[in-house]
Structure formats: structure tokens, C-alpha cells
Amino acid sequence: MRSCGLLLYRVDDAGEVEVWIGHMGGPFWAKKDLAAWSIPKGLADDGEDDLVAALREFEEEIGHPAPPADWALLGEFVQPSRKVLVVFAAESDFDPGSIASNLFELEWPPRSGRMRQFPEIDVALWTPIDEARRKVVAGQVPVLDALRQRLER
Question: CA 102, CA 141: separation in Å to the nearest integer?
């Protein structure tokens, strides 16, 4: 299985790198901050181009098309689930004003028989890369490290 995502970054006037990440929605993540964030990403359809999948998933999860940018393959990262995450990175000063993520359905509370809808991403924001390393799920920390290495070249 391949998941494809976009990592937007920007560098502020002091030279600090910030990245665009989203907090995962739904009741399991509601009261969590650390290790509860992700880059916008999702599964690629069979035969779908990785960048096309990443761009589609960004729009689904953020509710806005990805900004026009010079997307570059950052790498492929094996996740704890053994899924491969393909990430494209680009510099941008993206500011959508608000997000409107697609929804997923879940029985909540568990065993209640009630199905509810929750956003895949409930908030997204720019954050310094060091803070993002604490916020993203463990499998995505190497993505941030790869970006930092690329920018230090």
C-alpha cells in the first residue's frame, strides 16, 4: 500500500523553518496534541501517479487545492504499519484562511449503534519544524528530518 502526501514549508525572516501540518480529527485524537498531527496525505489509487494522488489528498483533507509550487520528491518512508509514505515537498506561504476537510464515518460512542461523521483533519497550521517533530505521528518524524537535511545542503 502506498500513501502519498505533501509537505509545505517556509522559512521565516530569522531563518527558522516552519511546516504545514494538520491535527487528525475524530474522537481518538480529540484530546491529544503530541504525536497526533500529520502532513496531508492519503492512499493512492491503483496505478495513480504519486504526485497526482498527493495533490488530490491535500485538497480532500484541507478543502483547498495545494498551492502552485515546484514539488520535489522528498522520499519514500516506511511507516510502522509497513505502508510506504511517498512525500513531495515545496516551499510556499500557503494561507487558506480556513480548512474544510472531508469526513469519515465512525460508530461513536463504541458499540452504541450510532454512526457519526468526523473530519479527517480538524485544524491545520504552520509550526516550527522542531515543534512539528513532537506533534507528528512517529512514522513522520523521518520526513521532517529529511526536509531539514535537504534544506541544509
Answer: 25
CA distances from residue 32 to 26, 70, 78, 85, 137 in whole angstroms, order as listed = 11, 33, 24, 23, 11
Type of residue numbered 73: L
The grid cell for 132 is 512539528
CB contact at 8 A, 31 and 127: no
Buried b / exposed e across 81-93, counting CB within 10 Å, b at 16+? eeeebbbbbbebe
Whether residue 153 is predicted with pLDDT greater than 90 in this model: the reply is: no
Pairwise CA distance, residues 141 & 134, whole Å: 8
Helix (H) or strand (E) holding 110: none
Answer whether 120's CB lies under 8 Å from 24's CB.
Answer: yes
First CA to last CA across the chain, in angstroms?
31
Q: Cell digits for 146? A: 529529511
Q: What separation in angstroms does the CA of 150 have from each of 27, 103, 114, 146? A: 36, 34, 47, 6
Please state the pTM of the whole predicted model.
0.94
In the block, which residue shows the cell 468526523?
118
Query: 15-64 pLDDT, tens per residue?
Result: 999 999 999 999 999 999 999 999 999 999 999 999 999 999 999 999 99
The three-class DSSP label of residue 30 is coil
